[in-house]
Design brief:
Structural class: alpha/beta
Order of helices and strands: HEHEHEHHEEHEHEHEHEEHHEH
Distance between the termini: 64 Å
Strand content: 15-25%
Low-confidence stretches: 21-29
CATH class of the largest domain: Alpha Beta
Mean pLDDT: 91
Largest sheet: 6 strands, mixed
Number of domains: 2
CATH topology of the largest domain: D-Maltodextrin-Binding Protein, domain 2
Number of strands: 11
Strand order of the largest sheet: 2-1-3-10-4-11
Radius of gyration: 24 Å
């Protein structure tokens, strides 16, 4: 084949490839602009009535109005949230299946499970941080400590006699206490329970001496005079409980342990669709009625860009991965 003919064919091939690429990009852009043309499903990896469920359903009406399509909630609880998030990871990446993930199946799981059915960093796209929630340190009402500093001093004096409850193995309740132990330098034996009620009751009865859990789950026992709260694990005090100091205020600068959640999409979902969902969910979370409802649940509104959520998850994964590895916490 002579050189001019070969060059001509190569040029024709290149032009054809460029044209095909442009057509494909145009199709993706057009598809993103048209989205959504049918209902959008959000997988909730927790039961109906859970905080994750309440968050998604609380945004549903606003999103329906913005999208012109209903939001369909599908509850898929089990296996620490990995069943639901696996369904999201394996869904068609077209923007019509999303999931509300949280610490466990996103940042904790890779370090605790021997094998996960998906890779959070490769199979899921962070879309937007929805809410976060700190834990509060609860002790028996008759505990001698009146603040967190006194609790640490008391715990150090007890040696290996202190035990603490958690709402479950590998939960934020469990890992936050491990971080607290490492930060403040005291020892305590972990006693896991299945949920907040039995864990809180064990502390109220002085069977265990401390618990980190979300404040609403402890409210009835606090109001009943059976538990008292010493500190909160957020960087700032809670607006709903301004009298409760932070752990950082007790001298442990920078201490921060939050349970968080956010929306995710399957890897491969078009960037324009991700941006549209991010914008609309931010708008839904700015609704005064939604914000008030979340405040009643003890939740802090999130928001922000998809990029900032991704960076936040990366930092959380590094932070908690080190704690899980050090404490040798394994689920299976």
């Amino acid at each position: 084949m002579n050189k001019p003919l070969a060059q001509h064919r190569l040029t024709q091939w290149a032009l054809g490839a460029i044209a095909s690429t442009c057509l494909a990009l145009s199709a993706v852009t057009a598809s993103a602009q048209a989205w959504p043309t049918k209902p959008v499903k959000v997988v909730v990896p927790a039961p109906a009535g859970s905080s994750l469920d309440v968050i998604v359903r609380g945004m549903a009406e606003t999103l329906k109005n913005r999208w012109g399509q209903p939001l369909v909630v599908e509850n898929k609880p089990g296996a620490g949230g990995t069943i639901g998030m696996d369904a999201v990871a394996k869904a068609t990446p077209d923007g019509y299946t999303l999931g509300i993930g949280f610490n466990g199946p996103v940042a904790f799981g890779p370090f605790m499970f021997k094998k996960m059915p998906y890779d959070p960093t490769k199979d899921l796209i962070p879309v937007v941080l929805t809410t976060s929630q700190p834990n509060v340190l609860a002790v028996p009402a008759n505990h001698p400590a009146q603040n967190f500093k006194e609790f640490v001093t008391w715990a150090k004096n007890q040696g290996d006699k202190v035990s603490y409850a958690s709402v479950g193995l590998g939960s934020s309740s469990h890992l936050s206490m491990e971080l607290l132990k490492a930060t403040a330098g005291f020892e305590a034996t972990h006693v896991p329970f299945n949920g907040s009620p039995p864990a809180a009751l064990s502390v109220a009865q002085n069977e265990t001496q401390a618990l980190l859990a979300v404040e609403p789950a402890l409210l009835s026992l606090v109001q009943g005079g059976r538990l008292k709260l010493l500190a909160v694990t957020s960087p700032q005090r809670l607006s709903a409980r301004p009298d409760l100091p932070t752990v950082a205020e007790a001298g442990y600068t920078g201490f921060d342990a939050l349970a968080w959640n956010g929306l995710f999409a399957p890897a491969g979902t078009p960037a324009d669709v991700i941006a549209r969902i991010n914008t609309d969910v931010n708008a839904a979370m700015a609704d005064p009625a939604f914000k008030q409802n979340m405040l009643k649940q003890g939740l802090i509104i999130g928001g922000g860009s998809a990029a900032s959520f991704k960076s936040f998850i990366e930092a959380e994964t590094r932070k908690w991965g080190a704690i899980i590895t050090k404490a040798n916490i394994k689920i299976d």
